[in-house]
Amino acid sequence: xxxxxxxxxxxxxxxxxxxxxxxxxxxxxxxxxxxxxxxxxxxxxxxxxxxxxxxxxxxxxxxxxxxxxxxxxxxxxxxxxxxxxxxxxxxxxxxxxxxxxxxxxxxxxxxxxxxxxxxxxxxxxxxxxxxxxxxxxxxxxxxxxxxxxxxxxxxxxxxxxxxxxxxxxxxxxxxxxxxxxxxxxxxxxxxxxxxxxxxxxxxxxxxxxxxxxxxxxxxxxxxxxxxxxxxxxxxxxxxxxxxxxxxxxxxxxxxxxxxxxxxxxxxxxxxxxxxxxxxxxxxxxxxxxxxxxxxxxxxxxxxxxxxxxxxxxxxxxxxxxxxxxxxxxxxxxxxxxxxxxxxxxxxxxxxxxxxxxxxxxxxxxxxxxxxxxxxxxxxxxxxxxxxxxxxxxxxxxxxxxxxxxxxxxxxxxxxxxxxxxxxxxxxxxxxxxxxxxxxxxxxxxxxxxxxxxxxxxxxxxxxxxxxxxxxxxxxxxxxxxxxxxxxxxxxxxxxxxxxxxxxxxxxxxxxxxxxxxxxxxxxxxxxxxxxxxxxxxxxxxxxxxxxxxxxxxxxxxxxxxxxxxxxxxxxxxxxxxxxxxxxxxxxxxxxxxxxxxxxxxxxxxxxxxxxxxxxxxxxxxxxxxxxxxxxxxxxxxxxxxxxxxxxxxxxxxxxxxxxxxxxxxxxxxxxxxxxxxxxxxxxxxxxxxxxxxxxxxxxxxxxxxxxxxxxxxxxxxxxxxxxxxxxxxxxxxxxxxxxxxxxxxxxxxxxxxxxxxxxxxxxxxxxxxxxxxxxxxxxxxxxxxxxxxxxxxxxxxxxxxxxxxxxxxxxxxxxxxxxx
Length: 820
Prior knowledge:
elongated, alpha+beta, eight-stranded mixed beta sheet, about 10% strand
């Protein structure tokens, strides 16, 4: 995949990065600190270093994939960050610098004494290893190995060597300067990817025409990916913890030459936070418009770079990934070394004796090397458990935010909080948060409730509980001699009022820009789609279908209007939920479905417009990875081609688990009718096939028996053979309820029963030429579903509802459901 020029680009990046880091290291005074330099870092370096530290490979891949699947919603996590950077700059930083501390645990020591100090030291070291070192290094090494073809261990070793080299020698000063260099590289590289993507899709107009309007929403009250209420309540808990109290972020302000410089640096970081949605998230949306239908959205970034970046630029993108990792990794290494040396080695090993600067630097360098070795083996260990533990660990860290946010907010702004209350509530809250985190990520509810709230809502609930516990314990305990009451914010803010006013103006301007950005994107989301389907109403089908008795149709595969005028009509298949590429023209795929029963059989009729019929208008091609797709066995793929899937859940139990599939029997099933193959006629003859879950032998046997006994039948007619205008086909299904629709134990549906509620889903597949479905699973062009979230359509709890009425339809007032 990589050309020799790409390797030259990567090599140039590594040489330049190490040169910058080593030059900075050599220029430092011999007595300067590894942990805060000589406290002369400028605001530009501080701002770019904070921004670069936050952009790790996990963020890059996750944000790109989330944008591909759900659009701009994920940008909220970036565009809300400025609020908490404001808190860091104008509230927390004055406290930190006035106390002349070097680590966050030292701040807590001044406020609450030694016990809480030791707890927070252990907590900080643990989170640095899990968040900043092992997790990021594993993801970065895995991506680098996928690009280059190297072994994972070799990729991890190279990345770790580069990050450790200048961190050991130059400490925080080298880290900050190299982070600034890498920030510029990431901005340039990702901007290039965005521009190339826009060129490929035909500019802004092309992007808007091929993207659903709801992809531009930033505020969506109905979103499951980013529930708005959970986000507004829960994100601040995470934001205070991450931006205001995490050593790896905050250590940059400790290195500033004075308070105004630190505050300007954090303001610059807030301004730079405008960029990620445009250069990290927008490319994901562009790639969705270029190649919709990817099953694994985590691979979207790699796929876009591979398919669209020219030689040389691929090397640039690998350099961007390396920069994202190394800017995170070197910061984590330096922060780990800082806390271990100053908050563990000095008070515990050196017994608080005065350490020389030479000894401090030596210990710091040794600890950095040891931390890099630990990170190497931790990252390698994650390879064996990445399928579950990696995601679990990241989720658990999110649940550790409430205790620390409580400790800082309540402890900082309410002087009544005691050391005993802070210590006990912190320990109890940590235990509670970890417990909830484990059970919620596993979906374990013990039958007490149906499902856990979104993790952001859980964070808020846990934060409120932690605050309540801290306040309660503070009211029943007294202050200890070790505690130190900190100065009030009013006292700190009067030291430099003129400078503070000018910086506040900068934050006000940033707030105006952010509000304007939200207004622009909500305006874009409100605009109608620009395809030829724009004015046809809702893009989603109804999920409720009412089916009534009608006259018996002629079962021959032809669908005539007069024989289905008494049937329930479901129109606009092109507007159904797209699993793969969305339909942008009705000439490509559209149609209607008609459903009724005659008291003996349940009938489904399909009138499908399809511009290109697989195996009829095209060769019967097969994807390289699925050469057995046409085998009429359990190893074949019955739905590979143009056709229809009908899924019915006759028992319609309401307590299905997420991901639970049909049983392949008369209670719930999924069958397929193809335009080019069948169980009875073989390849080349349209008709019925066994469906899912065909991997279960019992389901396979049930489906075959129904086909052979004519319990379920399907007949297909091509429109070109009917002297009808346009290309496509018509299809009829006839289903015998007395053997296939078991509504309860031993009870099968009949027209004599009261109105019966069943689960229903329908899929229309469209397979054209391989290039039409490029990057989709099996090169499918379209697969539109009646109901369910994308990629979850076959789960029982995602199906719509079919109400089977025994009698004929009575006149009704028109509703949003299909009951006419």
